Amino acid sequence: xxxxxxxxxxxxxxxxxxxxxxxxxxxxxxxxxxxxxxxxxxxxxxxxxxxxxxxxxxxxxxxxxxxxxxxxxxxxxxxxxxxxxxxxxxxxxxxxxxxxxxxxxxxxxxxxxxxxxxxxxxxxxxxxxxxxxxxxxxxxxxxxxxxxxxxxxxxxxxxxxxxxxxxxxxxxxxxxxxxxxxxxxxxxxxxxxxxxxxxxxxxxxxxxxxxxxxxxxxxxxxxxxxxxxxxxxxxxxxxxxxxxxxxxxxxxxxxxxxxxxxxxxxxxxxxxxxxxxxxxxxxxxxxxxxxxxxxxxxxxxxxxxxxxxxxxxxxxxxxxxxxxxxxxxxxxxxxxxxxxxxxxxxxxxxxxxxxxxxx
Length: 359
Description:
Blueprint: H1 3-27, H2 34-56, H3 61-67, H4 71-96, H5 100-122, H6 128-148, H7 153-169, H8 176-201, H9 212-235, H10 241-247, H11 250-262, H12 269-309, H13 315-322, H14 327-335, H15 342-358
Helix pairs in contact: 1-4, 1-9, 1-11, 2-8, 2-9, 4-5, 4-7, 4-8, 4-15, 5-6, 5-7, 5-11, 5-12, 6-12
Protein backbone atom coordinates (compact mmCIF):
# COMPACT_ATOMS: atom_id res chain seq x y z
CA UNK A 1 0.00 0.00 0.00
CA UNK A 2 1.36 3.42 -0.97
CA UNK A 3 1.94 6.22 1.55
CA UNK A 4 -1.00 8.21 0.17
CA UNK A 5 -3.28 5.18 0.49
CA UNK A 6 -2.13 4.68 4.08
CA UNK A 7 -3.26 8.23 4.82
CA UNK A 8 -6.49 7.82 2.86
CA UNK A 9 -7.71 4.70 4.67
CA UNK A 10 -7.88 6.20 8.19
CA UNK A 11 -9.39 9.42 6.80
CA UNK A 12 -12.14 7.47 5.02
CA UNK A 13 -12.72 5.21 8.03
CA UNK A 14 -13.14 8.17 10.39
CA UNK A 15 -15.50 9.82 7.90
CA UNK A 16 -17.65 6.70 7.52
CA UNK A 17 -17.68 6.02 11.27
CA UNK A 18 -18.98 9.55 11.86
CA UNK A 19 -21.60 9.15 9.14
CA UNK A 20 -22.63 5.74 10.42
CA UNK A 21 -23.05 6.92 14.02
CA UNK A 22 -24.81 10.21 13.18
CA UNK A 23 -28.12 8.64 14.12
CA UNK A 24 -26.94 8.36 17.75
CA UNK A 25 -25.93 12.02 17.75
CA UNK A 26 -29.20 13.34 16.34
CA UNK A 27 -31.27 10.96 18.47
CA UNK A 28 -30.17 13.04 21.47
CA UNK A 29 -32.08 15.99 19.98
CA UNK A 30 -35.51 14.35 20.16
CA UNK A 31 -36.91 17.26 22.20
CA UNK A 32 -35.93 19.83 19.55
CA UNK A 33 -38.44 20.48 16.73
CA UNK A 34 -37.43 18.79 13.48
CA UNK A 35 -37.11 22.02 11.49
CA UNK A 36 -34.65 23.44 14.02
CA UNK A 37 -32.58 20.25 14.03
CA UNK A 38 -32.42 20.54 10.23
CA UNK A 39 -31.36 24.20 10.22
CA UNK A 40 -28.64 24.29 12.88
CA UNK A 41 -26.21 21.81 11.23
CA UNK A 42 -26.15 23.91 8.05
CA UNK A 43 -25.78 27.21 9.92
CA UNK A 44 -22.93 26.08 12.17
CA UNK A 45 -21.39 23.98 9.41
CA UNK A 46 -21.11 27.01 7.14
CA UNK A 47 -19.67 29.19 9.93
CA UNK A 48 -17.15 26.45 10.74
CA UNK A 49 -16.17 25.94 7.11
CA UNK A 50 -15.60 29.63 6.34
CA UNK A 51 -12.31 30.06 8.28
CA UNK A 52 -11.02 26.75 6.92
CA UNK A 53 -11.81 27.88 3.38
CA UNK A 54 -10.30 31.34 3.89
CA UNK A 55 -7.06 29.87 5.24
CA UNK A 56 -6.70 27.70 2.12
CA UNK A 57 -7.84 30.29 -0.44
CA UNK A 58 -5.07 31.94 -2.46
CA UNK A 59 -7.07 33.70 -5.19
CA UNK A 60 -8.04 37.35 -4.79
CA UNK A 61 -11.69 38.43 -4.83
CA UNK A 62 -11.93 39.43 -8.54
CA UNK A 63 -10.44 36.07 -9.57
CA UNK A 64 -12.71 34.18 -7.17
CA UNK A 65 -15.73 36.06 -8.48
CA UNK A 66 -14.83 35.41 -12.11
CA UNK A 67 -14.05 31.69 -11.71
CA UNK A 68 -16.41 30.56 -8.93
CA UNK A 69 -19.39 32.92 -8.79
CA UNK A 70 -20.53 32.38 -12.37
CA UNK A 71 -24.20 31.91 -13.28
CA UNK A 72 -23.55 28.34 -14.37
CA UNK A 73 -21.83 27.44 -11.11
CA UNK A 74 -24.54 29.09 -9.03
CA UNK A 75 -27.26 27.12 -10.88
CA UNK A 76 -25.34 23.87 -10.54
CA UNK A 77 -24.62 24.17 -6.83
CA UNK A 78 -28.04 25.55 -5.98
CA UNK A 79 -29.47 22.32 -7.40
CA UNK A 80 -26.98 20.10 -5.56
CA UNK A 81 -27.66 22.01 -2.31
CA UNK A 82 -31.40 21.38 -2.65
CA UNK A 83 -30.81 17.65 -3.11
CA UNK A 84 -28.35 17.58 -0.19
CA UNK A 85 -30.86 19.38 2.03
CA UNK A 86 -33.59 16.95 1.02
CA UNK A 87 -31.35 14.00 1.84
CA UNK A 88 -30.61 15.48 5.26
CA UNK A 89 -34.33 16.08 5.85
CA UNK A 90 -35.28 12.46 5.13
CA UNK A 91 -32.42 11.21 7.32
CA UNK A 92 -33.50 13.35 10.28
CA UNK A 93 -37.14 12.33 9.80
CA UNK A 94 -36.09 8.69 10.03
CA UNK A 95 -34.00 9.25 13.16
CA UNK A 96 -36.58 11.40 14.95
CA UNK A 97 -39.46 9.01 14.25
CA UNK A 98 -37.81 5.69 15.03
CA UNK A 99 -37.17 4.54 11.44
CA UNK A 100 -33.39 4.28 11.43
CA UNK A 101 -33.45 0.78 9.90
CA UNK A 102 -35.53 2.12 7.02
CA UNK A 103 -32.98 4.89 6.47
CA UNK A 104 -30.21 2.28 6.31
CA UNK A 105 -32.29 0.54 3.64
CA UNK A 106 -32.11 3.72 1.57
CA UNK A 107 -28.34 3.90 1.95
CA UNK A 108 -27.99 0.28 0.83
CA UNK A 109 -30.25 0.88 -2.17
CA UNK A 110 -28.56 4.07 -3.40
CA UNK A 111 -25.90 2.34 -5.60
CA UNK A 112 -28.64 0.29 -7.28
CA UNK A 113 -30.70 3.44 -7.78
CA UNK A 114 -27.65 5.00 -9.40
CA UNK A 115 -27.79 2.29 -12.07
CA UNK A 116 -31.49 3.00 -12.68
CA UNK A 117 -30.77 6.74 -12.94
CA UNK A 118 -28.02 6.10 -15.49
CA UNK A 119 -30.44 4.06 -17.61
CA UNK A 120 -33.38 6.47 -17.36
CA UNK A 121 -31.55 9.82 -17.54
CA UNK A 122 -28.50 9.04 -19.67
CA UNK A 123 -29.88 6.08 -21.66
CA UNK A 124 -26.94 3.89 -20.65
CA UNK A 125 -27.14 0.20 -21.45
CA UNK A 126 -26.88 -1.80 -18.20
CA UNK A 127 -24.50 -4.71 -17.99
CA UNK A 128 -25.95 -8.17 -17.52
CA UNK A 129 -25.07 -8.42 -13.83
CA UNK A 130 -26.52 -4.98 -13.19
CA UNK A 131 -29.87 -6.30 -14.42
CA UNK A 132 -29.54 -9.18 -11.97
CA UNK A 133 -28.58 -6.84 -9.13
CA UNK A 134 -31.57 -4.55 -9.70
CA UNK A 135 -33.96 -7.51 -9.94
CA UNK A 136 -32.72 -9.00 -6.65
CA UNK A 137 -32.96 -5.59 -4.93
CA UNK A 138 -36.54 -5.12 -6.15
CA UNK A 139 -37.48 -8.52 -4.75
CA UNK A 140 -36.07 -7.45 -1.38
CA UNK A 141 -38.11 -4.23 -1.42
CA UNK A 142 -41.26 -6.21 -2.22
CA UNK A 143 -40.63 -8.54 0.73
CA UNK A 144 -40.10 -5.61 3.12
CA UNK A 145 -43.16 -3.73 1.81
CA UNK A 146 -45.32 -6.83 2.23
CA UNK A 147 -44.13 -7.29 5.80
CA UNK A 148 -44.70 -3.63 6.72
CA UNK A 149 -48.02 -3.48 4.81
CA UNK A 150 -46.67 -0.26 3.32
CA UNK A 151 -44.01 0.83 0.86
CA UNK A 152 -40.85 2.13 2.63
CA UNK A 153 -41.24 5.62 1.15
CA UNK A 154 -38.92 7.34 3.62
CA UNK A 155 -36.01 4.96 3.09
CA UNK A 156 -36.62 4.79 -0.65
CA UNK A 157 -36.78 8.59 -0.90
CA UNK A 158 -33.59 8.97 1.11
CA UNK A 159 -31.78 6.48 -1.10
CA UNK A 160 -33.05 8.17 -4.27
CA UNK A 161 -31.89 11.62 -3.09
CA UNK A 162 -28.53 10.18 -2.06
CA UNK A 163 -28.13 8.59 -5.51
CA UNK A 164 -29.11 11.82 -7.30
CA UNK A 165 -26.61 13.79 -5.20
CA UNK A 166 -23.85 11.29 -5.99
CA UNK A 167 -24.71 11.54 -9.70
CA UNK A 168 -24.61 15.35 -9.60
CA UNK A 169 -21.24 15.37 -7.83
CA UNK A 170 -19.73 13.31 -10.65
CA UNK A 171 -20.15 16.38 -12.84
CA UNK A 172 -18.78 18.82 -10.29
CA UNK A 173 -17.27 21.77 -12.13
CA UNK A 174 -15.29 23.31 -9.25
CA UNK A 175 -12.66 21.98 -6.84
CA UNK A 176 -14.20 20.38 -3.76
CA UNK A 177 -13.63 23.28 -1.36
CA UNK A 178 -15.20 25.87 -3.65
CA UNK A 179 -18.12 23.58 -4.46
CA UNK A 180 -18.81 22.79 -0.80
CA UNK A 181 -18.65 26.50 0.04
CA UNK A 182 -21.42 27.26 -2.47
CA UNK A 183 -23.56 24.33 -1.29
CA UNK A 184 -23.24 25.33 2.35
CA UNK A 185 -23.93 28.97 1.47
CA UNK A 186 -27.14 28.06 -0.38
CA UNK A 187 -28.29 26.03 2.64
CA UNK A 188 -27.08 28.60 5.19
CA UNK A 189 -29.26 31.46 3.96
CA UNK A 190 -32.73 29.82 4.19
CA UNK A 191 -31.79 28.01 7.42
CA UNK A 192 -30.68 31.28 9.02
CA UNK A 193 -33.91 32.96 7.92
CA UNK A 194 -35.96 30.16 9.52
CA UNK A 195 -34.04 30.37 12.81
CA UNK A 196 -34.34 34.18 12.92
CA UNK A 197 -38.11 33.98 12.27
CA UNK A 198 -38.51 31.38 15.03
CA UNK A 199 -36.45 33.59 17.33
CA UNK A 200 -38.73 36.55 16.62
CA UNK A 201 -41.79 34.38 17.27
CA UNK A 202 -40.31 33.19 20.55
CA UNK A 203 -40.43 29.51 19.55
CA UNK A 204 -36.69 28.90 19.09
CA UNK A 205 -35.28 26.47 21.66
CA UNK A 206 -31.62 27.42 21.15
CA UNK A 207 -30.37 29.45 24.14
CA UNK A 208 -33.94 29.58 25.48
CA UNK A 209 -35.85 26.48 26.55
CA UNK A 210 -33.07 24.00 25.70
CA UNK A 211 -30.60 22.96 28.38
CA UNK A 212 -26.86 23.57 28.04
CA UNK A 213 -26.17 20.08 26.67
CA UNK A 214 -28.76 20.51 23.91
CA UNK A 215 -27.37 23.93 22.98
CA UNK A 216 -23.87 22.49 22.65
CA UNK A 217 -25.18 19.57 20.59
CA UNK A 218 -26.83 21.98 18.16
CA UNK A 219 -23.54 23.85 17.75
CA UNK A 220 -21.60 20.59 17.43
CA UNK A 221 -23.94 19.49 14.63
CA UNK A 222 -21.90 21.80 12.39
CA UNK A 223 -18.78 19.76 13.14
CA UNK A 224 -20.67 16.52 12.47
CA UNK A 225 -21.77 17.97 9.12
CA UNK A 226 -18.49 19.39 7.79
CA UNK A 227 -15.66 17.23 9.18
CA UNK A 228 -16.73 13.91 7.58
CA UNK A 229 -17.29 15.70 4.26
CA UNK A 230 -13.73 17.03 4.29
CA UNK A 231 -12.23 13.68 5.30
CA UNK A 232 -14.28 11.87 2.64
CA UNK A 233 -13.16 14.30 -0.07
CA UNK A 234 -9.53 13.97 1.05
CA UNK A 235 -9.60 10.16 1.02
CA UNK A 236 -11.53 9.52 -2.20
CA UNK A 237 -8.74 10.29 -4.72
CA UNK A 238 -6.10 8.46 -2.65
CA UNK A 239 -7.70 5.00 -2.61
CA UNK A 240 -8.28 2.38 -5.25
CA UNK A 241 -11.81 1.92 -6.55
CA UNK A 242 -11.97 -1.62 -5.13
CA UNK A 243 -11.01 -0.63 -1.60
CA UNK A 244 -13.21 2.45 -1.66
CA UNK A 245 -16.24 0.46 -2.88
CA UNK A 246 -16.06 -2.04 -0.03
CA UNK A 247 -15.29 0.46 2.75
CA UNK A 248 -18.26 2.63 1.75
CA UNK A 249 -20.68 0.04 3.11
CA UNK A 250 -19.46 0.74 6.66
CA UNK A 251 -21.83 3.73 6.84
CA UNK A 252 -25.17 1.97 6.11
CA UNK A 253 -24.08 -1.12 8.04
CA UNK A 254 -23.47 0.94 11.19
CA UNK A 255 -26.77 2.76 10.73
CA UNK A 256 -28.56 -0.58 10.38
CA UNK A 257 -26.89 -2.08 13.47
CA UNK A 258 -27.66 1.01 15.56
CA UNK A 259 -31.32 0.88 14.59
CA UNK A 260 -31.67 -2.82 15.41
CA UNK A 261 -29.45 -3.26 18.47
CA UNK A 262 -29.13 0.19 20.08
CA UNK A 263 -32.68 1.50 19.61
CA UNK A 264 -34.36 -1.90 19.36
CA UNK A 265 -36.43 -1.12 16.27
CA UNK A 266 -38.73 -3.88 15.10
CA UNK A 267 -36.90 -6.28 12.81
CA UNK A 268 -38.79 -9.45 11.93
CA UNK A 269 -37.55 -12.49 10.06
CA UNK A 270 -39.44 -11.31 6.96
CA UNK A 271 -37.63 -7.96 7.07
CA UNK A 272 -34.38 -9.85 7.46
CA UNK A 273 -35.19 -11.85 4.32
CA UNK A 274 -35.78 -8.59 2.43
CA UNK A 275 -32.51 -7.10 3.65
CA UNK A 276 -30.66 -10.29 2.71
CA UNK A 277 -31.95 -9.89 -0.86
CA UNK A 278 -30.67 -6.31 -0.91
CA UNK A 279 -27.28 -7.33 0.53
CA UNK A 280 -26.97 -10.05 -2.11
CA UNK A 281 -27.79 -7.50 -4.81
CA UNK A 282 -25.05 -5.23 -3.43
CA UNK A 283 -22.50 -8.05 -3.52
CA UNK A 284 -23.40 -8.71 -7.17
CA UNK A 285 -23.31 -4.98 -7.95
CA UNK A 286 -19.96 -4.35 -6.25
CA UNK A 287 -18.22 -7.36 -7.79
CA UNK A 288 -19.51 -6.34 -11.22
CA UNK A 289 -18.30 -2.75 -10.72
CA UNK A 290 -14.85 -3.91 -9.60
CA UNK A 291 -14.55 -6.34 -12.50
CA UNK A 292 -15.66 -3.69 -14.98
CA UNK A 293 -13.21 -1.12 -13.58
CA UNK A 294 -10.32 -3.56 -13.85
CA UNK A 295 -11.31 -4.48 -17.40
CA UNK A 296 -11.46 -0.81 -18.43
CA UNK A 297 -8.09 -0.12 -16.81
CA UNK A 298 -6.55 -3.05 -18.70
CA UNK A 299 -8.07 -1.89 -21.99
CA UNK A 300 -6.72 1.62 -21.41
CA UNK A 301 -3.22 0.26 -20.83
CA UNK A 302 -3.47 -1.87 -23.97
CA UNK A 303 -4.61 1.16 -26.01
CA UNK A 304 -1.70 3.21 -24.68
CA UNK A 305 0.75 0.46 -25.62
CA UNK A 306 -0.73 0.22 -29.13
CA UNK A 307 -0.54 3.98 -29.56
CA UNK A 308 3.15 4.04 -28.68
CA UNK A 309 4.08 1.50 -31.37
CA UNK A 310 1.52 2.48 -34.04
CA UNK A 311 3.19 3.82 -37.24
CA UNK A 312 2.02 6.99 -38.96
CA UNK A 313 0.26 5.67 -42.05
CA UNK A 314 -2.42 8.27 -42.66
CA UNK A 315 -1.52 11.45 -44.53
CA UNK A 316 -4.23 13.49 -42.82
CA UNK A 317 -2.94 12.32 -39.47
CA UNK A 318 0.62 13.31 -40.40
CA UNK A 319 -0.54 16.75 -41.51
CA UNK A 320 -2.49 17.27 -38.32
CA UNK A 321 0.34 16.10 -36.09
CA UNK A 322 2.73 18.40 -37.88
CA UNK A 323 0.61 21.28 -36.58
CA UNK A 324 1.29 20.17 -33.02
CA UNK A 325 -1.46 17.61 -32.34
CA UNK A 326 -0.49 14.12 -31.23
CA UNK A 327 -2.07 10.91 -32.52
CA UNK A 328 -3.58 10.38 -29.09
CA UNK A 329 -5.19 13.82 -29.27
CA UNK A 330 -6.67 13.10 -32.70
CA UNK A 331 -7.95 9.72 -31.60
CA UNK A 332 -9.53 11.29 -28.54
CA UNK A 333 -11.24 13.91 -30.70
CA UNK A 334 -12.59 11.27 -33.06
CA UNK A 335 -14.02 9.07 -30.34
CA UNK A 336 -15.05 11.80 -27.91
CA UNK A 337 -15.85 15.09 -29.68
CA UNK A 338 -15.34 18.29 -27.73
CA UNK A 339 -13.87 16.31 -24.84
CA UNK A 340 -17.39 15.46 -23.68
CA UNK A 341 -18.99 12.09 -23.00
CA UNK A 342 -22.62 11.50 -24.00
CA UNK A 343 -23.56 11.44 -20.31
CA UNK A 344 -21.83 14.76 -19.67
CA UNK A 345 -23.43 16.25 -22.80
CA UNK A 346 -26.92 15.45 -21.52
CA UNK A 347 -26.15 16.77 -18.06
CA UNK A 348 -24.52 19.96 -19.34
CA UNK A 349 -27.47 20.60 -21.65
CA UNK A 350 -29.81 20.42 -18.66
CA UNK A 351 -27.66 22.86 -16.69
CA UNK A 352 -27.49 25.25 -19.65
CA UNK A 353 -31.27 25.17 -20.07
CA UNK A 354 -31.82 25.85 -16.37
CA UNK A 355 -29.27 28.66 -16.59
CA UNK A 356 -31.16 30.25 -19.45
CA UNK A 357 -34.58 29.94 -17.79
CA UNK A 358 -33.60 31.02 -14.28
CA UNK A 359 -31.10 33.72 -15.08
